[in-house]
């Protein structure tokens, strides 16, 4: 599953009415789901709450990413006004496995530049895959993913780790296309490992 284009959260009304979106994905027993939406752009002055909930059943598999760009840095419009509350919640057979909350508003604005926050990068992304077995084959996969060379010379930070039953790859940079290219390169290795299938890019990405 993907989206036909980037999602956009525009400037809120003067009364700062909250803008919200929740995506809920249920994956049945023995099924697999691949969720690769194009990026979300949060404009200056937005006041939004975004949540993705993934409920896995026994024996099901999930591969998914989310890419977020704050403001329009290429146009000089930074996300220096507004608020964003983002949540990713993943459960397996009703048991929470991965929960991530991110909040950026007037009270936490220092996170934008902080070394434990966004480090002044406008784009962040996460790719999560699993459940994966705790085996030598998984360790070898992680080594291959860490060896991927990024051809794009724009500055970025990225890394991948094994968290519980899931692989988690993170990106910080300046370009959503760079993030998607990196995650796609990783998917080229992950999909055969997870599903024994080669990758096939959605045709709509080329339009």
Query: From the helix content, strand content and strand pairing, which structural class follows?
Result: mainly beta
Largest sheet: 7 strands, mixed
Count the helices. How many? 2
Overall pLDDT, averaged?
A: 92
Question: How would you summarize this macromolecular structure in one to three sentences?
Answer:
The protein is mainly β and 207 residues long.
What can you see in these coordinates?
The chain has 207 residues and is mainly β. Helix content is 15%, strand content 40%. The strands form two sheets. Strands 1, 3, 4, 6, 9, 10 and 11 form a seven-stranded mixed beta sheet that branches. The two termini are 16 Å apart.
